[in-house]
Amino acid sequence: MNGILLINKPKNYTSHDIVYKVKKIVKEKVGHTGTLDPNATGILPLLIGKATHISKYLINHDKIYESTIYLGEKRDTADIEGNIIEEKRVNYDLLNKEHVEEILNRMIGRRKQVPPIYSAIKVNGKKLYEYARSNQKVEINSRDIEIYKIKLINIEKNIIDFRVFCSKGTYIRTLCEEIAERLDTVGYMKELTRIQVGNFNIKDAINIEQLEDNIETKEFLDSKLVTIENYFKNKNKIILKDEELIKFLNGVTIFCNLKDDLYRIYDENKNFIGIANLKNKKLKRDVIL
Predict the structure, then answer these.
(1) Contact yes or no for 275/228 (Cβ under 8 A)
(2) 187-220 pLDDT, tens per residue?
(3) Residue 24 maps to which CATH number?
(4) Number of domains in the chain
(5) What ranges in the chain are assigned the alpha helix state H?
(6) Which of the residues 44, 174, 197, 273 has the least number of beta carbons within 10 Å of its own beta carbon?
């Protein structure tokens, strides 16, 4: 079993919990390309079997989230799991649709963002949340992010729902706090659902129970597993003759008078072999099935 499986992660499970559960079910090596907080839900692409070797091609994907901001309270973790560290009056005159949309639109574009202290980013070999839990101070460097699009979904009292299309590395918890500040109050991320990662959409994801119930059903697995071949379907293909293929599989670079890129490799019978990098006219194996 080799490919990408899209799981709809429920609340109160870490990404590691889901990887562990799926590994027990499929009895293959399993990895993921980006964590979701335990309180968050939504799409979690998992790499199964030899697909774990293509993780480098999935880590830079843009993402789409739906989130809920709770205004009037600030929490140490910037989400509902944390302790309240500040309360501030909410000016409901500022919570009209036009003004909130204006504030959201100001967030669009490239910008610097400082990740929250309660995150798994490592500084000097130690995760930020470990510094936070031991009350140690640490300098957190800002990172470049980009908000491509942001849309207001609903406003109800002191709660705002919105959808955001953003780059890799964007912390929605921090974004929620920034939006609250621009509304002259404080706030935290109450809910978060990841809707899309790259071209993977939540509508194609399954839950753990569906996987358990259908693990012996080939038709179901075939319909839900994104194969390595299909994932790279937009890449050009190269057919290698038998002698070239033997050398290629043994790690020998093959001369190809083509442009530098990633290619799908096939044998003479049009069987998919794997993917390879071509650089300076030299074709080198990358992931082989």
Answers:
(1) yes
(2) 999 999 999 999 999 999 999 999 999 888 888 8
(3) 3.30.2350.10
(4) 3
(5) 15-26, 97-106, 128-133, 172-182, 208-214, 218-224, 228-231, 242-249
(6) 174
Residue 166 and residue 59 in contact, taking contact as beta carbons nearer than 8 Å: no
Q: Chain-centre distance of CA 163, in angstroms?
A: 15
Q: Does 95 share its domain with 158?
A: yes
* Contact by Cβ (8 Å): 9, 36: yes
The residue range of the domain holding 90 is 63-197
Is the domain of 193 the same as that of 205? no
Q: What is the pTM of this model?
A: 0.89
Predicted confidence (pLDDT) per residue in 75-102, tens digit:
999 999 889 999 999 999 999 999 999 9
* Cα 281 from Cα 289, distance rounded (Å): 23
Tokens 């205004």 locate to 71
56 and 15 share one domain: yes
In tens, the pLDDT along 38-57 reads 889 999 999 999 999 998 88
- In the set 37, 93, 242, 260, the catalytic residue is 37
